């Protein structure tokens, strides 16, 4: 009986190994994300950006997020990957049954975005259908055909992620069309109040400083929420964005080469009264093909322009559409020098680069790896943007040794 039981166990193990070995590998051609395996296959997805659209078949790629390995710098010394219109996901159907006509800006859910390294979310909140809804709408009103989902459901996703990732820090930017008190109530209902960074602790004066990231984590102040509507600090406990953030012009108007001008609501980009910098990098009409070709070296060029326009400060938040879309060799390693005003100095494929005196990126990586920002003084690593790994940068060979061992064991048992 015992021998029969062992035989059954070995056969089951062989079946598991066979399933694992049949999973798609990074760089293999695919027709859809399902052909790259399940979610347990390590985040594989089917992407048409590698190779560039029109130059070959789509292949399986993997997103590898990297969070800070050190948190000993102030919060405003980090840069975070941010998704524009995070809620506007391809293929979403409105819970109220209406077809959504608003164009999508992202490919996957908010939970997937967070799992893939996104740490900044841009959401549009409206009073709609006797509740607070996330809509991608116009004229300050939400309609059935622009209503993606109730805010509560997405906020609960964020709360669940914070619960299961105790060192993660998330920032939400709200384009706010809600009445006073509405957002505070839905935040509380989602269980997010305990994570909120207190408004009274935010640096309101130029001489005020952000706390160290590790202190924010230790105190569980791991959710920062900025609203575009003034007066919500008193009614909802939410920070007024323009007191703390300068932001670039959004959409195609903000993509002019060599320029980095502020949007209308923001103070000028070089205003030191605001301690955080948000850079937008997306077209007015969302385009996956544009993201494929530009969420790489053109983005780095924009970063250089914004560094200079923002009083030698690198953006803390880099907002993009279709964050998983980037051209091959479009990933980068942004390194900060030990100077008081840190700046990227070099880009490298593998070995740590030497620090360059140049205040801007100097070259693009020659292989696809995770994009991360590193402080050489503190060793802090934080996600800027995850990347699709190419077949040339990863060992794609499967190991069949465990299968042979188990087959030998099965022969002995029989």
From TrEMBL:
Originating gene: gb13833
GO molecular function, one term: phosphoric diester hydrolase activity
Protein name: PI-PLC X domain-containing protein
Classification via PANTHER family: OS04G0689300 PROTEIN, PTHR13593
InterPro entries, sorted: PI-PLC_domain, PLC-like_Pdiesterase_TIM-brl
Family annotation (Pfam families): PI-PLC_cat (PF26178)
Residue ranges with Low complexity bias: 344-353, 361-370, 380-394
Keyword Signal annotated: yes
Keywords, in A-Z order: Signal
Gene3D superfamilies found in the cross-reference section: Phosphatidylinositol (PI) phosphodiesterase
Renumbered residue ranges of the record's region Disordered: 335-394
Domain of life, per lineage: Eukaryota
Any one Gene Ontology BP term: lipid metabolic process
